[in-house]
């Protein structure tokens, strides 16, 4: 199954979405998906596994996850003890601060998460209280819908992000080393795909690389990640292409080739299936 490209209601004045204190079984969780907004997930209780980009995390009470845009992710709640979480989604336009002193960007914590491939922050009591208080504020303001609620949500979000960004260098942990979450060969495969998108990433080549039979590889990969290896590779290449489209002025054909697409026609087809737009339209719509 191809990962879902999640979209949110278009509201230029209030590009913010909250899923508050939700307990979900595995059947209620979205399959592998990605989106162009920033996401924060706080774990109140329960347990499970969170697959983010190429890493498997154990979901534990008090954990806070930071998901930058354009990252494949999926939660796998435990069947007998599912997680209760709050998820915050927002467009970077919502917290834009032109003209203000930005010695510390409110998005610093997300930038560090992407650069270090570390998406989880365990919290001390002070920061945990700050985070849960902000989440409660978001919920109350959206529920009551009083005058000024958009501004209050925005400033509460900015305060939370700036406080968390101060803690990033010291609090963001290394990827969970628990081998029970995924076998080492699967971790090695995910890292290889991330580092070598232009290489031959067909099933046969990857099986040879990690010395695993095709049947075992396919079955375990799908059970752990939630999609086939073919769909995952295409999704990762599309994610890279989206980043290149916005970060460079390179020609579409050059980007397609550098991201591992041998056919420009196939790249256009998959890109439009994924985003709903052609690469050129996507670049224009998301240009700063």
Descriptive notes:
Helix 1 crosses helix 3 (149-171) and helix 2 packs antiparallel against helix 3 (149-171). Helices cover 45% and strands 17% of the residues. It has 288 residues and is an alpha+beta fold. It folds into two domains: 4-171, Jelly Rolls (Sandwich); 184-285, Arc Repressor Mutant, subunit A (Orthogonal Bundle), CATH 1.10.10.60. The two termini are 32 Å apart. The strands form three sheets. The chain has a five-stranded antiparallel sheet. The longest helix is centred in the middle third of the chain and has 23 residues, at 149-171. It comes from Paenibacillus phyllosphaerae.
What key attributes describe this structure?
single chain, alpha+beta, Jelly Rolls, Arc Repressor Mutant, subunit A, 2 domains, 3-stranded antiparallel beta sheet, globular
Topology:
Layout lengths: L3 E2 L10 E8 L9 E2 L3 E8 L2 E5 L2 E5 L3 E5 L5 E5 L6 E7 L17 H9 L3 E3 L2 H20 L4 H23 L12 H12 L7 H8 L3 H12 L3 H19 L4 H7 L5 H12 L3 H7 L3
Parallel strand pairs: 1-3
Antiparallel strand pairs: 2-9, 4-7, 4-9, 5-6, 5-8, 7-10
GO molecular function: DNA-binding transcription factor activity; isomerase activity; sequence-specific DNA binding
Protein name: AraC-like DNA-binding protein/mannose-6-phosphate isomerase-like protein (Cupin superfamily)
Organism: Paenibacillus phyllosphaerae
